[in-house]
Amino acid sequence: MPPAHIEAVGFAAAVLTTLCWIPQALRTIRTRDTRAISLVTQAAFTFGVGLWLLYGLLIGSTPVIVANAISIVPVAAILAMKLRFG
Question: Membrane-crossing residues (predicted)?
Answer without folding.
Answer: 6-24, 36-58, 64-83
